[in-house]
């Protein structure tokens, strides 16, 4: 239900963007070609969607498999550890999204955040399989970093669009690029299911 409400809001925004493009078309402006605009926005959408895919792949398919015993987990239970992972992740998101007035990234740095988030996902992926990270606190730090990267990518992408994109298509650009995170989150949810099951089966086979 929440997902449907969220997508409905995106649909409303896109409908408004299409109305803007229609008005541009009626006035014979050169900014009426939505296909060309979408292609030009791929430079924002691909890094944006990649960051969201990676961070939600971690959250939905990997991080719950990273569990520590009492000696290495501050005497917390596995369910409590998972909750703390989420807390540190959202603290990172909050801080980075709130710091756009302090730290502004250029387009190259925004794109590199996708590479950084991918590298972090690889680290967590192999941690879920081989459990080579020795302590719960390190994973909390990694989740905090995942939130920092995701929030920084979100805030700086839309700030960059607001500042750099032609004002005549700015509303269209903002509403269109927003779909990249939805696609990334959906793809992460779909990919997380078989990967999660595969890792669990691998561990079971190792034990047996």
Automatic annotation (TrEMBL):
Belongs to the battenin family. One of its GO terms (cellular component) is endomembrane system. InterPro entries: Battenin_disease_Cln3 (IPR003492), MFS_trans_sf (IPR036259). Its main location: membrane. It is a multi-pass membrane protein. The chain crosses the membrane at residues 105-130, 136-155, 176-199. GO terms for biological process: regulation of intracellular pH. This is Battenin. Pfam families: CLN3. Keywords: Lysosome, Membrane, Transmembrane, Transmembrane helix. It is found in: Endomembrane system; Lysosome membrane.
